[in-house]
Amino acid sequence: MALKGDLKDMSLSSLISINCNEMNQARLTIRHQGREAALFFADGNIAHVVLDSQEGEEAIYELLTWEEGEFELEQGVAPPKRTVTTGWSRLLLEGMRRMDESAAGPEVDWDEVEMSETDQTAERIVRALKRVPGIDGALICSRQGEVLGQKMAGDPAKEAALTAFVGRRSEELGFLLCAGQWERLILSGQARKAMVVPCRESNYLGLVLGRRAPVEALIESVRTTLRRYE
Amino acid sequence: MERVLSDVNAVAGVGGCFFCGQQGAVIASATKATPDAVAFHGVGRQVAFAWAALEAAGQATEELCFCYERARIVARVLGNVALVVLCGPRVELASLRIILDTAAGLIKGDPDVRRSLAARAGERADLLAEGHLDASSRRLLGALDSRREQ
Hints:
Distance between the termini of chain B: 39 Å
Shape of chain A: elongated
Structural class of chain B: alpha+beta
Structural class of chain A: alpha+beta
Number of domains of chain A: 2
CATH topology of the largest domain in chain A: Beta-Lactamase
CATH class of the domain at 1-92 in chain B: Alpha Beta
Strand order of the largest sheet of chain A: 1-6-2-3-4-5
Radius of gyration of chain A: 19 Å
Distance between the termini of chain A: 46 Å
CATH topology of the domain at 1-92 in chain B: Beta-Lactamase
Largest sheet of chain A: 6 strands, antiparallel
Number of helices of chain B: 6
CATH class of the largest domain in chain A: Alpha Beta
Shape of chain B: globular
Number of helices of chain A: 7
Radius of gyration of chain B: 15 Å
Number of strands of chain A: 11
Order of helices and strands of chain B: HEEHEEEHHHH
Oligomer: heterodimer
Largest interface: A-B, 45 and 44 residues
Order of helices and strands of chain A: EHEEEEHEHHHEEHEEEH
CATH architecture of the domain at 1-92 in chain B: 2-Layer Sandwich
Largest sheet of chain B: 5 strands, antiparallel
């Protein structure tokens, strides 16, 4: 049976990350303002994309800008050919970068960021993360809610108290269910999306995400950034 | 309510689910795998604490998804109750979210169920007065309350 929905309720980036993570072989058809696109998933990645007469990765970047459109997911459909070779998470991040650029965001030079910063490690981490497309704000705080580094709009002290509080609740829940290591907490609301993850030296990292940010792809970026500073 | 719980439990990777009120107390539950009523109550309480903190911070949240090495807990806020789902790490989240959206629609559209849930949701003040939080967490919650209007 086909799974149907609308991109208003579930973004394309979420559909891609779920199907790739679950190694689905499937065809995702999307209809938007009289246009039709098809994405084929196979072997944990996107294998083929077609939009009008366009095929391959450039078509995906355009599709990622669609904020609404009916979709239909049919399991077990094999790709007719392979026009995409880049990994799905890299595609989503590139798509987010392009969208940010088109909204006049500056290009990131990771090496320059790393070389020029002389602040404390927490400050360097949040500055690096704030430059990742899809991350609107970042903060590192202690378990007691003390701000160790922040790059976010609003009231950092309040964000830190909230981050530490929900981080503690996440740990308690994990202990209660013997669920193993706590990896992250994702908070989704109409107005914003946020993520809290455990961070170096028993601290917490709080992230404010773009409303349509590809969470699964961002997790890899966050892990990579944290590893760079361990 | 029972139908909603049964539908949620039918999703691959779901181990059990329950409705809880603002106090975290279990209103109705259905178990498919190992978690028992005691575990549900503890989970409900921690979810309710997180939910209360988010509201105190002025950040209305529809869904909380706690991810662990061996489990996921998805809590969908539906007015003054939450539907909490205990899952394995490979749960089909897309299917689950569609079922949760349907559940939210059913509850919103059924005044009897809404009234029944509201009557049993309890008061958040009771949760915060019960003394289940450690001192540091109480201070954090106090800080959120004091900055509520800032």
